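User: Predict the full complex structure for these chains.
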Amino acid sequence: MGQQHQRSPLAPDSFPKLPGLPGLKIGVAATGMKYTGRPDVMLALLDPGSVIAATFTKSKTRSAPVDWCAENLPAGDVRAILVNAGNANAFTGTRGMRDVRTTASAVAKQTGCRPEEVYIASTGVIGEPLDAAQITASIQSMIQTAEPDDWQAAAQAILTTDTFPKAASATARLDGRTVTINGIAKGSGMIAPDMATMLAFLFTDAPLPARILQALLSQSVDRSFNCITVDSDTSTSDTVLLCSTGAKRDRPKGLRTHRDPRLEGFAKALDKVTSALSRLIVCDGEGAEKLITITVTGAESDIAARRIGLAIGNSPLVKTAIAGEDANWGRIVMAVGKSGEAADRDRLKISIGGHAVARRGQVVPGYDEARLEPHMQGRDIQIKVDVGIGKGRATVWTCDLTHRYIDINASYRS
Amino acid sequence: MGQQHQRSPLAPDSFPKLPGLPGLKIGVAATGMKYTGRPDVMLALLDPGSVIAATFTKSKTRSAPVDWCAENLPAGDVRAILVNAGNANAFTGTRGMRDVRTTASAVAKQTGCRPEEVYIASTGVIGEPLDAAQITASIQSMIQTAEPDDWQAAAQAILTTDTFPKAASATARLDGRTVTINGIAKGSGMIAPDMATMLAFLFTDAPLPARILQALLSQSVDRSFNCITVDSDTSTSDTVLLCSTGAKRDRPKGLRTHRDPRLEGFAKALDKVTSALSRLIVCDGEGAEKLITITVTGAESDIAARRIGLAIGNSPLVKTAIAGEDANWGRIVMAVGKSGEAADRDRLKISIGGHAVARRGQVVPGYDEARLEPHMQGRDIQIKVDVGIGKGRATVWTCDLTHRYIDINASYRS
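Assistant: Here is the predicted structure of the two-chain assembly.
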């Protein structure tokens, strides 16, 4: 990190208390690879029979660990997740994959599983070779000190430019029993996930097969991690893993699809966790002073609504105006226009903080910007846009663009 | 503007001397609509028989003047161009088009042409109704004071957040005669033209029909204005007009297509003018301290190469790194990956300022970043990327992202 970054003003007051999750232990260690005086590597150990679902970055220059995880995913089995912070092992040529195999094999040997059951995620600087020996040297101590439910230590070990650890939890009723979903995430810059996300690790004890977990995860990621942006830049390393340790419990009988009505509660709980983690990532967006929630309705489709929302959320002009506490709605009009999605300029409706600003393609009669001032001065900015075409809708979260974003990124090597 | 912005450090030393262009007079005036103490409206008067070609923004929320020009373009005739700075007349409902008709009719009446031969461009704040009377009141004095070749006054009258006036010129041999192309442009923020551009007005005396001019202009805009970005935001008002006053001269005989070999010199001269104006817009990019030239080769097609170049040029992480004089090539890898275009990660080659940085998907052996420091500290940053797939190539221009961009946009209402 070089410099220490001040805790985001949008950070929650405290780390949440997560319920216990049977079948899982977590250890952390400090390798000294890049950071000093803090754990920078995490190992999650899962009971035999655990299954996994995942989504990854769509980047064409994705990292070696992402390649590795994507290769192993079809089998759906998982016994360990190893994560290091400080070096992304991305753009490291053939050596990158060799280093992944070395660390996965070391974990497999020491835990008695197959290397293919060890998932790896790396985050940090792009283009520097990883020192695999520094990681393998820490595995034994992580195994020995691993504890159930040490979520805060895990969430802290995976951070890079983040200023606070991120976790969320939810429970659901499934087939007459209560199941839990716990998740941790990291992410602060290079955030514009494309059908994938930054690092997030979700664990559940729900007794569901990998195929169903995968369908539920993909659906949930589309509404959460794929609806956030800090700076429109997409990482080489984005990875979301969802593991279930519930294999030893009875699975609901005759479950054929993720649309089975018995999964409704679980799907909602999963959405709750992925949305909460997504918002936490935006709240830790580099330099963020304000959380911006953009709700788009009236679009041709939900996908079109998301694209319009992201066009607004990625606009540096919209984001700097909000940093300046200026309700510059003309720039919202501009961003809708540049999205390329169908919009009826002459039926466009915009409201900010609940105040109608524009309708029927022009400013509302008697519009008084002074009434918006208290809202613009707050931390939580709400923008609603109806584009007057159809029924598509989406919510997108982003943060403002401040001087601190430039301070952080003109110096940090990531 | 509210505040005065300091002249860009990338501005040219002086305004260029443009050759005379027969058949054209230009007048300017100060309406006081938004700015005080400076001309903010320009009227170009063209001789009868002049023809026009144009490209416009692809924004779905484009302004009333853009709608007006696009409606009239198929006829290809032009007698006047009226431009005002300070109010974009965009998102102004049905009143917006009424105001355009009012001003076009006033010009037509006082110059003896049809309203449809009067092209209008407006730039400035979005969403505020225009005071058409302020503009019509200035028409008579602009007609009376119009002079041939007052390019500097014209280039100054159309500026908004720009810090210097922009012009370029070139001559070509056409069918045994010398013809001239003169152009002026404005643009500083909200710059990511999509098959169109910010305001640019090009004039030539080349005796070419509107259809051929249009084909040549579209081709040239694709290689110039469509290859620049300041902040990834696309304006509601982008307009490029190319007018020829050469109607009274003999047209080259048997000219059927813009690919006629006799047009080669003219096409090259046109590219020279559009490229020069495009670079001037980037050099006046809001907050710009460095001009960044990104050359992409080895892409699947020229279009793919441009998309990759724009992904690099739009990346806030790449742009802030360059502002910090940091040769952070890992972020270039990231941007190539997020473009979505085919790239072979393991054949990717990157050089900065002529120094090889990466090849075969990893950093070059013995890479020493200290050698790049003198280049990174200069004003003119050169990035070359070969993505190892095909023969597509493109050059894209952008500027760095500095604290001044935020200063300008957290306060200016545009």
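Chain B touches chain A through 71 residues (CB under 8 Å).
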